[in-house]
C-alpha cells in the first residue's frame, strides 16, 4: 500500500483530525524516514523501505523555513491552530530538538501567539533531560503508548533499541500531568498473527497504567490512512467509544477518532 513521506522541515498546513489547522514541522530528512520505532501501521512505511540519504535539517534551516511560512500565512490571512512536530519519524531524535522548540515558541509568540505548539513523539527519548525539559515547554506533549504488553510492543511498534516499559511509564509520570497519551487501537493480522488490542487483556492493564501516569488527556484512534501492512483493520467506533468511556469514568478526559 502507498505511504507518505513529508517535505522537510515545514509542511502543510493540513487539517488534522485531532489538532485542527496544523502547520507541520518535520525534523527528519525530506527523502526518507528515521524513527526509533518501526510501527506496522506507520503511514511513512517501514524503515527498511525508506532509508534517507539526506541529513537532518539544521536548527537554522528549521527556524528560517518556519519564519518564512509564518510570514506567508500572515500575508494570506491564514492562522494555524497548532504548530505540530511530526513528519517522517521521531522528532526528539534531532540533536537540537530542545533549541528548536525554543526557536519555535519564540516565532509562535511573534506571529501567532494563540497557536499551540504540539509534539507527537513515541516517548523513547523522554529519559533525556533536555528532551524532557523541552517537552515541558510545549502546549501539547503527545506521547505514544499503544499498549503495556511488552510482547505486543515488540510485534506492533517494533522498537529499534531496548524498550523498557517501566522506564517509559516512569518517564511519563515525571511530566506531572503535562502530557497527552496517544494510543492506537486496531484489528487485523501481520504475518498471520492477530494484532487486535481492543480486548480486555490489553485494555485493562493499559487503563491501569494510564491512571498511574495521570495525563491531562488521552487520545485514542485507529487506522485512518494507508499502512505498509495490508492486513490491518480499523477498530470499530463502538469499541473505541467503549474504551473512551472507561477512561473518562476514571476522571481523565479522552477523545476517540475513528
Ligand atoms: S512512532 Fe510514529 S513515525 Fe515512528 S514508526 Fe511509529 S508511527 Fe511511524
Automatic annotation (TrEMBL):
Gene3D superfamilies recorded: Aldolase class I
Domain named Radical SAM core: residues: 34-178
The organism's place on the tree of life at top rank: Bacteria
Keywords: 4Fe-4S, Iron, Iron-sulfur, Metal-binding, S-adenosyl-L-methionine
Cofactor section: [4Fe-4S] cluster
Protein name: Radical SAM protein
Native organism: Xylanibacter muris
Amino acid at each position: 500500500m502507498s505511504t507518505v513521506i513529508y517535505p522537510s522541515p515545514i509542511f502543510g498546513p493540513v487539517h488534522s483530525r485531532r489538532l485542527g489547522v496544523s502547520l507541520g514541522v518535520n525534523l527528519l530528512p525530506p527523502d526518507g524516514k528515521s524513527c526509533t520505532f518501526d510501527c506496522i501501521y506507520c503511514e511513512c512505511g517501514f524503515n527498511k523501505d525508506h532509508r534517507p540519504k539526506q541529513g537532518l535539517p539544521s536548527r537554522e534551516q528549521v527556524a528560517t523555513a518556519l519564519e518564512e511560512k509564518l510570514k506567508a500565512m500572515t500575508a494570506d490571512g491564514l492562522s494555524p491552530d497548532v504548530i505540530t512536530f511530526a513528519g517522517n519519524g521521531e522528532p526528539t531524535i534531532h540533536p537540537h530538538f530542545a533549541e528548536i522548540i525554543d526557536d519555535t515558541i519564540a516565532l509562535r509568540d511573534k506571529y501567532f501567539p494563540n497557536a499551540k505548539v504540539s509534539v507527537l513523539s513515541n516517548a523513547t527519548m523522554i529519559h533525556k533531560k533536555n528532551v524532557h525539559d523541552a517537552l515541558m515547554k510545549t502546549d501539547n506533549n503527545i506521547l505514544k503508548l499503544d499498549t503495556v504488553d511488552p510482547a505486543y510492543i515488540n510485534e506492533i511498534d517494533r522498537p529499534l533499541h531496548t524498550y523498557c516499559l517501566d522506564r517509559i511509564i516512569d518517564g511519563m509520570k515525571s511530566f506531572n500531568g503535562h502530557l497527552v497519551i496517544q494510543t492506537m487501537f486496531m484489528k487485523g493480522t501481520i504475518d498471520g498473527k492477530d494484532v487486535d488490542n481492543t480486548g480486555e487483556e490489553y485494555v485493562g492493564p493499559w487503563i491501569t497504567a494510564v491512571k498511574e501516569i495521570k495525563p491531562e488527556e488521552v487520545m485514542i484512534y485507529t487506522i485512518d490512512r494507508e499502512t505498509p501492512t495490508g492486513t490491518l483493520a480499523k477498530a470499530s467506533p463502538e469499541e473505541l467509544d467503549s474504551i473512551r468511556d472507561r477512561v473518562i469514568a476514571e476522571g481523565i478526559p479522552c477523545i476517540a477518532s475513528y
